[in-house]
Amino acid sequence: MNRIKAFKIRLEDRLRYSPRVRQLLARWYEFKASRQPSAKPQQIARTIDTLCKAARLSDSKNDLLRVEERIREKIRQLDRRKIDWTEFEKFAKAKRIFKAAVLKPRVSDRERGVVYISFEYQLLPLLQIPNLSEFARDYSLVVIPVWSPPHCLVNYLLPEIYPDPVIWTINMQRDLDDLARIAPKNTIVPLLCSNWVNPALLKPRPFQEKDIDILIVANWGKYKRHHVFFDALRELPASTRVLLVGHSDGQRTDEVLRAEAATFGVAGRFELRQRVKHREVATSSPAQKSASFYPAGKVPAWL
């Protein structure tokens, strides 16, 4: 174990999640937004983006409400037709939405279908299609924010752009209140990510049949805090079988993650797999490869 490097990682993590530091950063972003030029649509969009960062960091309800009011003021000034979305999301011009599913097909003019889209950046290709009103006529839209708190430019503009009320699910209970303020005309339902899991697929296996003791499914980003797990893994028996499933997050590659594990003295104590397909993660044995999180074993094409 490299104690100096481990100390630096722990210190950075403590500062990242310190309420006092987060509040100082929130104030800084709020100040920065006040100094940004806001004469043109793209400049206003940048200011809103900066204010959203302040909102996500704020731990004070009064400060949060003040920032939200400034965001709404800027939204009223914004000509959304003149925004270059690629500045904010690299997937803005994507030709395919790859984290979505048709939960229910359209039956008729009297019975619309239901489309589910996860992650805000997946909404941008949809919001830019020329026949958006026709899509809204044929389908109800259900979305889930990427982050909690859910303050971001796309979430604020979705109720303004989409021609029909949208159904939102949540990541945390506090999102119910936040989304109600962000999208007051829309419907917010208290469904978490775990509500979509089919419990029939999660039956315990006999102990002698288990080949994994601990499974972690998460990308390699710092905010996933793998170092906390590595710290705890040192205290577990060397025979503990660990599998990490995920993918790179920016510069945080598998090499970086392995180096971090070595820093905490647990190099080689786990198996690491990247870019594993959804259906493989969702199943517990090769015999169940056709199973999924969806009823009757029907795997949507996007999986």
Helices and strands in order, then pairings?
Blueprint: H1 3-16, H2 19-35, H3 41-57, H4 61-77, E1 100-104, E2 113-118, H5 123-127, H6 132-138, E3 139-144, H7 153-161, E4 167-168, H8 175-182, E5 187-188, E6 214-217, H9 226-233, E7 242-246, H10 254-263, E8 271-274, H11 278-282
Parallel strand pairs: 2-3, 3-4, 4-5, 6-7, 7-8
Antiparallel strand pairs: 1-2
Helix pairs in contact: 2-3, 3-4
Quick structural gist:
By secondary structure, the protein is of the alpha/beta class. It has 3 domains: 80 residues, no CATH class; 111 residues, no CATH class; 94 residues, no CATH class. The protein has 11 helices and 8 strands.
What is the count of structural domains? 3
Poorly predicted ranges = 284-303
Average predicted confidence as pLDDT: 87
Q: What would you report as the Rg, rounded to the nearest angstrom?
A: 22 Å
Helix-strand topology string: HHHHEEHHEHEHEEHEHEH
Widest β-sheet, arrangement of strands: 1-2-3-4-5
Helix content: 25-40%
Can you offer a commentary on this structure?
The chain is of the alpha/beta class and 303 residues long. It has helices spanning 3-16, 19-35, 41-57, 61-77, 123-127, 132-138, 153-161, 175-182, 226-233, 254-263, 278-282; strands at 100-104, 113-118, 139-144, 167-168, 187-188, 214-217, 242-246, 271-274. The two termini are 40 Å apart. It has a five-stranded mixed sheet with strand order 1-2-3-4-5. The protein has a three-stranded parallel sheet with strand order 6-7-8, with no helix packed on it. Residues 284-303 have low confidence and may be disordered. It has three domains: 3-82, no CATH class; 85-195, no CATH class; 199-292, no CATH class. It is built from eleven helices and eight strands.
